[in-house]
Amino acid sequence: MADQIPLYPVRSAAVAAVAANRKRAAYYSAAGSGPGGERHNRYQLEDESSHLDEMPLMMSEEGFENDESDYHTLPRARITYRRRGIEWFVCGGWKFLCTSCCDWLINVCRRKKELKARTVWLGCPEKCEEKYPRNSIKNQKYNIFTFIPGVLYEQFKFFLNLYFLVVSCSQFVPALKIGYLYTYWAPLGFVLAVTMIREAVDEFRRFQRDKEMNSQLYSKLTIRGKVQVKSSDIQVGDLIIVEKNQRIPSDMVFLRTSEKTGSCFIRTDQLDGETDWKLKVAVSCTQRLPALGDLFSINAYVYAQKPQLDIHGFEGTFTREDSDPPIHESLSIENTLWASTVVASGTVIGVVIYTGKETRSVMNTSNPKNKVGLLDLELNQLTKALFLALVALSVVMVTLQGFVGPWYRNLFRFLLLFSYIIPISLRVNLDMGKAAYGWMIMRDEHIPGTVVRTSTIPEELGRLVYLLTDKTGTLTQNEMIFKRLHLGTVSYGTDTMDEIQNHIINSYSQMFSQGGGNSTGSTPSRKSQSSAPKVRKSVSSRIHEAVKAIALCHNVTPVYESRAGVTGETEYAEVDQDFSDENRTYQASSPDEVALVQWTESVGLTLVNRDLTSMQLKTPGGQILTYSILQIFPFTSESKRMGIIVRDESTAEITFYMKGADVAMSSIVQYNDWLEEECGNMAREGLRTLVVAKKSLTEEQYQDFENRYSQAKLSIHDRTLKVAAVIESVEREMELLCLTGVEDQLQADVRPALEMLRNAGIKIWMLTGDKLETATCIAKSSHLVSRTQDIHIFRPVTNRGEAHLELNAFRRKHDCALVIAGDSLEVCLKYYEHEFVELACQCPAVVCCRCSPTQKAHIVKLLQQHTGKRTCAVGDGGNDVSMIQAADCGIGIEGKEGKQASLAADFSITQFKHIGRLLMVHGRNSYKRSAALGQFVMHRGLIISTMQGRSLSFKTFLIWVLISIYQGGILMYGALVLFESEFVHVVAISFTALILTELLMVALTIRTWHWLMVVAEFLSLGCYVASLAFLNEYFDVAFITTVTFLWKVSAITVVSCLPLYILKYLKRKLSPPSYSKLTS
Prior knowledge:
Elements: H1 14-32, H2 37-41, H3 50-53, H4 85-110, E1 118-121, H5 147-156, H6 159-170, H7 181-214, E2 217-222, E3 225-230, E4 239-242, E5 251-257, E6 263-267, H8 269-272, E7 277-281, H9 284-287, E8 300-304, E9 316-320, E10 327-331, E11 336-337, E12 342-343, E13 348-354, H10 360-363, H11 374-401, H12 407-417, H13 426-442, E14 451-452, E15 466-469, E16 476-486, E17 491-492, H14 497-514, H15 525-531, H16 539-552, E18 557-560, E19 584-587, H17 591-602, E20 606-610, E21 614-618, E22 624-633, E23 641-648, E24 654-660, H18 662-665, H19 675-684, E25 688-697, H20 699-714, H21 719-730, E26 735-746, H22 750-759, E27 763-767, H23 772-781, E28 790-793, H24 800-811, E29 816-821, H25 822-840, E30 845-849, H26 853-867, E31 871-875, H27 881-886, E32 889-893, H28 900-904, E33 907-909, H29 914-941, H30 954-978, H31 986-1005, H32 1011-1030, H33 1037-1040, H34 1043-1070, H35 1074-1079
Parallel strand pairs: 15-27, 15-31, 27-30, 28-29, 29-30, 31-32, 32-33
Antiparallel strand pairs: 1-8, 2-3, 2-4, 4-13, 5-11, 5-13, 6-7, 6-12, 8-9, 9-10, 14-33, 16-17, 16-26, 18-19, 20-21, 21-22, 22-23, 23-24, 24-25, 25-26
């Protein structure tokens, strides 16, 4: 792939290496001094030690060519030739200088202060050492003072509008006045008025949404009790109470909860795009306090790191000073409640640590930009070309006069006389056309619920090259369905689940009949198995073991909502006594786990209760089985597995259960000959696979493990490595129980929609915050990656050397999709931005997982900068807003994750499958019609020329200029030849021929006729005929009603239009368009 793309090497000379290191140190020390410096500090200079500088990082077997450019210069800044002096200034330097000055003024006005770590005293905002930003949400582009200047600047920064303004202002000068003022100012004023009204309405809507969010009331805990406070009035240090299903107003540290477990679940879909519920743990010191008011009786504070972009990490400490000795508790991400998340269980109390623009959600949201369509930019360029032609024509006219008298005034008057070549009605017609296209999109019954929020860029939908889409809720429904259970020798699908249910019922009925009806017993067969010789287990016992392992090995909590009509009871009242199925729901940090537990419930083994130390299962016969939770090893992206050690309360047996990805579990379980093959089969079906295994432990084995595990957790140095080593000591020779397959249901018709987009030449990138395995699985099941294509999973890289080696491996792959994690992507973009983007753009599909909201927006901007192509971003959550706003065209989907993305987008749809029709039909038609409309409006100024109805470009522009010269010549010389004796009636002659030619050329351009078009043609002709009666001073009615006049005007019109009709017929006959070949 792209053999010609070199990765620029480091100079091998020692002097060059030293110089490069000095430059690097200066660059990173300067970058690290600002607010964003911490982002660079993660990559220390140890990663770029001298041995890496001298390392021969070869891109191919032939090696590198020598390149003397500094390796560490950013790739986009590497240019072979730098213009200097006047040439640099003329070729864009003036724009760079103006932009730099504006940025400097903005930075001076804003005076962005440096972000610092802080000490926050509980309930004492007055003790804060610094003044922190207000906790208000502000999505408005302008304020009352900047609205008019801002809108006017956005309009007149284009040459087209600026030209109209200069021409209109010139009519205030008596020496230059050539017409009525209203003929110039009325169209310009209409365009400005419509634009300002539209912007004002949008701005007012944004203001109302912000006001609604900022006015939400929350309970604030004070010494005098609870008081109601607006969200915008919350300060750092306040103790805020947030109820269930209420939005968290600011970034907080979790102090207390009404849940007896000391933990709660929150929904983070508006922050990271994942609808999985996240488990949060309260600070143990404050959770143990007897009463809520005791928070004011202790002297405690939270030390929090400075505000950062990372939504997956936090470092801080909680300190209580009035105890002896002082209590110090470390704080991590599980002790935080970020703004814009929603409490899913219980009531929580937290202390505010970050507010307003310092919250994680706001820092990960970019400011919206004013989007300008490529068509408008092209029209702007064509206007400049027309202006140059206009100037040249005026100079010619002044030259023919011999530069007599005040020739410069005559030059300006000629410019005004010929100004109709650039029609002032162009913007009016285009804006009205775009409004009509938006109306047609919203009225389309095939895509119901579609809303056009930005009416200025509908034609952009037809010019897209890159489509960047979210995964969760966009391509998928995020609803997991259990599809397959494989035991090695037998496989069960959705149509044979009743067999599993029968095996479970029979197994537990035999167990309790043998155990004498003991309702708290467990399987007695396990005792006999431990002492009996090892024999092949029956299918029934294997199913029983597998289902029990799935029902126990998870992090799911059952929740019982209060029934309707019950008052005066807490939400979770009588949980231990009431295990009724109708009001039970499951909470978990992953929908996979919920799907597995719901499946075990469907086959007869139900999870009915769980706390931090135990869980209870209900058998098909209604008996309750109790298990003590001894240890839990949560799932991590590094380990790719989770485990749990439980003790059966009735038999005191200790069992270690584990489940995880096949790549992690294959080396842990005992030898088998079917796991790898079946995992591949399920993956090809688009199922997410989990391998389930177990290991029985004696009491002595467990005590030994617990002692070593506790010591490892208390160690200060290399704690993570030591803990992992202890856990791995028991992850040996585990018994393989089963392989499960779960399907993440796709949105309706996602596969044909993606196939249609791919066939249209659109490259699709999937950007998701989800795990690498999940993203890869969805890419396969949605056919984003076809079954015949290979997938290159980019290995994790942390420094330049690793990134270079991995890029070497990736470069040698051909026609394969790329899957890369956010951390690795950041390293590659730091050192090899240009090379990486160029390689990735050649892939048929790219999947970026574990992406933060700002990374998504950054990827969109990189594609725009490096390719110059139009991009479209599709998402449905608050974490997609930055990406949607950065793209040339943003599409939001209204779904389970709320309306935040759809409100911020340019177009809002209800299902992903609607994108196909939105782009292929409405986008293409809007572009074609806008191009044709722009050409039609221009051709009125180009001596009544015409267009071919193709896409707008300089080629078609020159074609219809030539045609306009032909038609203008025919109209002029035809009138001179045929009406030599009646030349006094030239106005009637020319205008009649113009109208007929115009109507015929419109008919020539139309591809598909509609009855409204026929009405419009005859209505236009009728308006001209009716105007003859009111314009007696210009038209002689007696003259134009003669037969001679009529046939001569008809002859001129036919001569000007008939050749074009003949050419069009021959072109369609000899070179028909592709769609006609398909339909014939």
